[in-house]
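Q: What would this chain look like folded?
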Amino acid sequence: MLDLIIQKTSAFDSAALLGNLRLNNPNFSSANSYTDIITSRINTGIAVASEIAALVAFIILIVSGFQYMTAGGNAETSKKAMKGILYSVIGLIIVTLSWVILSALLALLS
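A: My prediction, written as structure tokens:
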């Protein structure tokens, strides 16, 4: 009985440090849960960062497209807008390729 209490207490402390409480699992394995939690956090971080980067690039694409349409023949504004469009498309390509590469690496490692 005392061993079970110690296991649950150590499970609570270990999981609380990583933000994941697993109090209802009497067969808590800290080695497996650490790797699962860390892998899960990395996957979540990559997904959130990719979504934010893609959203920013898409917004820049829309703003630059609007600037290009409203340039009214001004060469400087048109050139600036075209650079914004080019850079946002390059950013979207980089985000997509990084997501594909990281997904492939995580699939190979797991």
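Residues 2-109 form one domain.
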